[in-house]
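Researcher: I'm preparing a figure for a lab meeting and need a structural model of a single chain. I don't have an experimental structure, so a prediction will have to do for now. The sequence is pasted below. Please return the structure as tokens so I can convert it later.
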Amino acid sequence: MKKIIQHQIDLYQPNFIKHGPVPEGMFCNNMTTQNERYRQLLNPLLNCKSSNFQFTI
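Model: Understood. Here is the structure written out token by token.
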């Protein structure tokens, strides 16, 4: 598991440093693609949220 995580860091970190916190920095084509990626990552958390939890993208 540590190898996978390190590989992701090695891949994303230079690109993020080069482009910053914009879609290109996360290998996304545009903001729509970036938001969809975040939505997919957060989906498991949103499915087990409490009734008082509010989240918007």
